[in-house]
Each structure stands twice: as C-alpha cells, then as structure tokens.
Amino acid sequence: MNVPVVKFNTKEKNEFHKVLNKRVNKYFKDNQLSKNGNYKMVFKTVFMIALYFVPLFLMLAGSITTFASMLLMWVLMGFGMSGIGLSIMHDANHGSYAKSKKVNNFIGYIINFVGGYHVNWKIQHNVLHHSFTNIHEFDEDLAIGVMRFSPDQPKKSFYKYQAFYAPFFYSVMTIYWCTAKDYIQVLRYHRKDLLHLQGLTIKTALVQLTLLKAGYFLLFLILPLLLIPLPGWQIFIGFLVMHFICGLALALIFQPAHVLEETEFYHADENGSVENNWAIHQFKTTSNFAKNSKLFSWFVGGLNYQIEHHLFPHVCHVHYKDISGIVQQTAKEFEVPYYQHETFYDALKSHFTLLNQLGRGTYKKEELLVASRP
Questions:
Q1: Contact, 178 vs 120, CB < 8 A?
Q2: Could you give the CA distance from residue 130 to residue 108 in angstroms, rounded to a whole number?
Q3: pLDDT tens digits, residue range 14-65?
Q4: Dihedral angle sign, alpha carbons of residues 93, 178, 243, 305
Q5: Are strands 339-341 and 287-289 parallel, antiparallel or unpaired?
Q6: pLDDT, tens digit (0-9, with 9 covering 90-100), for 313-355
Q7: What pairs with residue 273 in β-bridges?
Q8: What pTM was estimated for this model as a whole?
Q9: What is the DSSP letter of 372?
Q10: From CA 335, how far away is CA 323, in angstroms rounded?
Q11: What is the rounded CA–CA span in Å between residue 305 and residue 297?
Q12: Three-class DSSP category at 266
C-alpha cells in the first residue's frame, strides 16, 4: 500500500486549534445556523447551471446562426463552467453543500458535466491538496511538469520564462483534464492504492471514466458539430474558448491562494514528518485576497477566503465572510500568521512574482529552505 502519509507536529500550539474550533462552533450555535448551504446556495446553483446549459441548448436548438452570437454562447458557458467548478461542485464534493450525503453526491457529480472526473477530484483536492498543502511530493497541485511551483522542485532552463508562459498553460488546464490527465491520474491513484480508498477497482474506474468522457464529448462537442448550422471549425473554436476561460479562471483563483511570496513550502523529513501542526501549517501555506469584493467573492465561491476554507472545508462557503473575523482575531491572539492581499490584483502580482523568482532561481527563501532540509 502506497497511501501517502505526513506526520504533523501534534505538540505545537494545540490549544490554538482547540480555541479556534470552539469559537467557530459557538458562532454557528449562538446564531442557530447550519454549517451547510442555504437559500443563497440554491439560487447560485440554479444561476450557474443555467449559465452553463442554457447557451448550449440554444445552440443545439438552432437558435444561434452567426459566428459572433455562437462565440458569445461559448463565452457565457465558460463563465458558467467556472462558476460551477468554484461555487457549486466544490462545496458539494467537500460535503458542505448540504447535510444530506446524497444531495452532496448528486450536486458534486456535476463535475463530470464540465469535463472532470469526480473520483479524481476528491483524491487530488480533498485528500492530497487539503491534507498536505504545499508539501513537496504530496500536494499534487504543485506537481505540474511544465512549471516550478516550489523551491523543492528541480530547476530547469525553460522555467526561466514560466511567469510569461503560465497563462497559456493555465488556460489549457481543463482541456488537459478532460482528455488525458484523468486517465493518467486514475492509473497513478491505482498504484498508490488511493482508488481502493474510494471503493473502486481500476477496472471499474476506467470503465466509469470512459463512459463519462464519452458522454461529455457527445453532449458538448459532437452534438454541437452535428446540430449547429455553422462550420465545424467555428464550433471547435467556441469549444476551446469555453475551456480557455474556465482553465484560466480556475488557475488564477487557486494558485494565488498558495503559491505566493509570503506562503511557505515544506518537505517532509525521512520519517514523513513536518514541523508544524496541521492548523498552523494551513495558515503558513495559505493566503486570502479581495475579501471586500462582494461580487467577486460570490462568483468564486468564497475561495478568496482560502484560509477559512482550508481550516473548515466542511463549512459551506456562504459562511466564510462571517467567520473570517473570528479566525483572524484568534490567529492574532496566538501569534499565528494570517496572510491576505487587499485586492485580487495584489495576489496575482505576488503569484507571478514568485513564479518569476522560482523560474530564474532568485527566490529569496530558497537557500534557507534547502539548507534546512534533512
């Protein structure tokens, strides 16, 4: 069995995590609130699903007859696809959308309609990323071969320009997911025995994945090519534009939450141990941004409150703003860093600055970090 394991420091500031949990739980109890979603989530679900599917149905029904109007439909679908990924299925696959496991599974399953695979997402995001944030060789969000996201990754000459070519690879991210990555991940997760933990055999996973992919491409590419009264190359461009928008949106929300100048990167020692306890680790590897932008926060599913999300992934994102004050104040009392950027632009600037430093080998913390490795 190759299930990855990291040992966090259970002796470091344990009281902090207990106090924080107690205060957040008290907030929900005192206000008689459920930690799950509410009517706001229902409205957002309807909105995002409509933004994604209504333009498709209009095109398939023959209502769209010009390239410009068709391209607009794909653009809207790109934002709908992003909204579903950030605001809907993300909460559901964390089990925070609703109290009912069946409802969470049903809503979370929609990831298969945006080209992903729900099993892989739960393993990569819930198990590997949330458990082992910014830990080399454990957090798969750092493991992208064409880019260097941490000082523990080997240097390569072409990384020198990664701050410039990053937007391109970000934009094709979901295309890679829906074509090749899911198959690569299924095979890798089988070797690591992670599929078994999801109750799947490799044969079942491959059959399920292939059927879901076939259904996705049938609905979102083959039917449009057959039914939309426009040249195939125009439809294919629209399909790519949808993915470019979604891929770029997802990457530019998730990456500036962890891969920044101020966040830390870790390497487990020979015993699989890291220096912090789990909660402190989340604070040191995570940052918030644009907390005062209500519309932005609404669209990205509260993921600009990334610290709160990592500490309380089973709390629906509609509550993050309300508990962020509790989290920040408790962190201040216990002298735990609470990283945040006032605007989204500031977070993006820090992210691309770090990409440039890592690519060129000028990352200021790198020598210190490498020297401290066992």
A1: no
A2: 17
A3: 789 999 999 999 999 999 999 999 999 999 999 999 999 999 999 999 999 9
A4: positive
A5: parallel
A6: 999 999 999 999 999 999 999 999 999 999 999 999 999 999 9
A7: 7
A8: 0.92
A9: T
A10: 18
A11: 8
A12: strand
SS3 334: coil
Of 126, 149, 114, 349, the closest CA to residue 246 belongs to 114
In contact, 149 and 259? CB cutoff 8 Å: yes
Helix H segments across the chain? 14-30, 39-60, 67-83, 89-93, 101-108, 118-121, 130-131, 162-171, 173-176, 182-191, 194-197, 202-217, 223-227, 232-254, 278-284, 294-299, 306-311, 320-333, 344-360, 366-371
Q: Which two tokens stand for residue 37?
A: 């979603």
The first and second tokens of residue 192, run together, are 């690591």
Q: Taking a C-beta distance cutoff of 8 angstroms, is the pair 272, 5 a contact?
A: yes
Would you state the structure tokens that stand for residue 145, as one six-digit string?
């071969």
Q: What is the distance between the alpha carbons of residues 293 and 227, in angstroms, rounded to a whole number?
A: 41
Cβ–Cβ under 8 Å, residues 239 and 74: yes
Are 230 and 100 in contact, with CB atoms under 8 Å apart? no
How much is the CA Rg of the chain, to the nearest whole Å?
21
DSSP state of 183: H
